[in-house]
Design a protein that fits this description.
- It is found in: Cytoplasmic vesicle, Secretory vesicle, Acrosome.
- It comes from Lophotis ruficrista.
- This is MORN repeat-containing protein 3.
- Keywords: Cytoplasmic vesicle, Repeat.
- The chain has two domains: 78 residues, no CATH class; 78 residues, no CATH class.
- By secondary structure, the chain is mainly β.
- The longest helix is centred in the first third of the chain and has 9 residues.
- The chain contains one helix and 15 strands, in the order H-E-E-E-E-E-E-E-E-E-E-E-E-E-E-E.
């Protein structure tokens, strides 16, 4: 007895239309309802690969790597100057899950600059911060603050080397008063020296040495 043949079930036509409308692999430019613009690669209607995003309200631009709709990989973020309208770099480095993560460099208003490691969008790890007044901190960071071992060099070349906690000198450390030719070595607590010893250090080369040397014990 011959086997009856039934026509093969075909998938709904709208499935094929959906596949054709999915942006995948190729570069496309898409405008959001609020005016934001993205030009780059896609995967299943998500920004994925290399691309550039422009935010209409602020004029900010991100150009770099994307992963499933979020900044992920290497890229740079820039904003227009409020006066000249020229773009200035704010951050260049690595991203993960739409946040700064890994090694990167950030430029702050007033000329301050941080170069180092990031985690979850915050300075964490080892890094160097150049402040507006000319001071430089280099050392360990945690949750956007100096934390661990680090050195702070002041504009007059005086410097602190030692332990930090929550952005303040905390624990054992040394403060070199090179302008006076002295060295304080002791213990700090929340930026305040609690106990220690002071000795002459390079007093013969100090620009403003103390009137009398510290007698040796």
């Amino acid at each position: 007895m011959p086997i009856a043949k039934f026509p093969r079930a075909t998938e709904p036509l709208w499935h094929e239309w959906e596949r054709k409308t999915l942006k995948c692999g190729l570069r496309h430019t898409v405008y959001a309802v609020n005016g934001d613009q993205y030009t780059g690669e896609w995967l299943n209607n998500l920004k994925h690969g290399r691309g550039t995003q422009v935010w209409k309200r602020t004029g900010a631009i991100y150009s770099g790597d994307w992963k499933f709709g979020k900044r992920d990989g290497y890229g740079s973020y820039s904003i227009p100057d409020t006066v000249t309208k020229e773009y200035k770099n704010v951050y260049t480095g690595w991203w993960k899950n739409d946040k700064k993560c890994g090694f990167g460099m950030k430029f702050y208003p007033g000329g301050e600059c941080y170069e180092g490691e990031w985690r979850d969008g915050l300075r964490s790890g080892w890094g160097q911060m150049r402040y507006q007044d000319g001071s430089v901190y280099e050392g360990q960071w945690l949750a956007d603050r100096p934390n661990g071992q680090g050195m702070l060099r002041l504009p007059n070349e005086n410097r602190y080397e030692g332990s930090w906690k929550d952005g303040k000198k905390h624990g054992p450390g040394k403060f070199f008063y090179l302008d006076k030719g002295q060295l304080f070595e002791g213990i700090w607590a929340a930026d305040i020296p609690k106990c220690g010893t002071v000795i002459d250090f390079g007093r013969d080369k100090a620009p403003a040495p103390t009137q009398y040397p510290i007698p040796k014990v």
